[in-house]
Amino acid sequence: MRSLPFALVVLLTAAGCASASTEGGGETGTGGTGPITFATGRDTTAYLQPLLDRWNQAHPAEKVTLLELPEASDEQRAQMVANLQAKSARYDVLGLDVVWTAEFAENGWIIPLERGLFPLDRFLPPVVETAVYKNKLWAVPYTSNAGLLYYRTDLVKKPPRTWSELRDQARRITKKHNIGGYAGQFLAYEGLTVNFSEALQSAGGQIVSQDGTEVALDPAKAEIALDFLLRGLREGWIPKESLSYKEEESRLAFQEGRLAFARNWPHAYGPAKEKLGGKLGVTRLPGLDGPGSSTLGGANLAISAYSRHQHTAQEFIRYFTSLENERRVLTDGSFPPVWTELYDDPALIKRFPYLPVLKESILAANPRPVSANYNQLSLVIASSVAKALGNPSSESADDVAASMKSELEEIIRTQ
């Protein structure tokens, strides 16, 4: 066998290295085509597979396989982190909770994306911000979410706009009808962090600075937010059993007639409407002095830094977040889409009457703390609030707020 000229050997070696580098991910951008895996939380509505089938029919050499992770977001994150820390190429496209962007970007687990490849100007602005970290786009918004106040129209003549109005109505209904007045998600998990964040925002406060480098928690405003919940438990219009509620438990309690008001995500609308019919009402969360502020939820799609087929992953995300598919996200999956124009579509509003309220809620919502250590921050918040709610008569709201701030500052200081 004849030897290749030295110059040709160098050229082929360089080309091979470039190809391997591109397919391996990292800092080289989106290169590599072929089959991919889409890792996301369990599909409880069976709407995903038809969307994947359409892609697979059009891309037989770049088929996507759905890898369903646990339904709970904490467990999803744990499995993704384990995979990415091992630098495994098993996952290509990642369905990330909107609060994970900073952590995954900071650790180099996902790659930055080119803004011009996606119609971000047609998405809801607050939703786009959840995919940005340090002025770079790290993911593409896929679904959004904002908390809503569900209420019984047969028991409530005019929905409350303030906490005071909610308290008065809930107390009256509890006494007259012997049912719970109000509940959210008060178990010590991410849902409690969300509920406290919404109360704090609705009192004019925040947890950390916009860039995530400082704790901005005002103990006085945190005390007001905590007292709203503690007072409800002390006075009985927030039932004690709600301390064990996650989303599903609070949804069932409301639609089964055990609550007059409930805070939940939009996914609760369909089952509640089916059960309550014309007795169901939806409005924005109340606040201290007027309509409150929800916490942004939802999911973004990112590309693993260790994917060997990043170009295919990118094109799949472009397909999956298209206007046509975002419409199906709503109509088939009942998840809030990210395209602004879908919230103004008369046909969709007729089918999903809560869309105008949801749009208002999303536009007025705030993200959870932007931090690479978000998971630690959330654990501190949830455990602190849970401790207070578990002992509403003995725990001082100002002491809990001061202690929470101290713990949060320690996390920020060491990040």
TrEMBL record:
GO terms for molecular function: maltose binding. Keywords: Signal, Transport. SUPFAM superfamilies: Periplasmic binding protein-like II (SSF53850). Transmembrane segments: none annotated. InterPro entries: SBP. The keyword Ribosomal protein does not apply. GO terms for cellular component: ATP-binding cassette (ABC) transporter complex, substrate-binding subunit-containing. The keyword Signal applies. One of its GO terms (biological process) is maltodextrin transmembrane transport. Belongs to the bacterial solute-binding protein 1 family. This is Extracellular solute-binding protein. It comes from Nonomuraea phyllanthi.
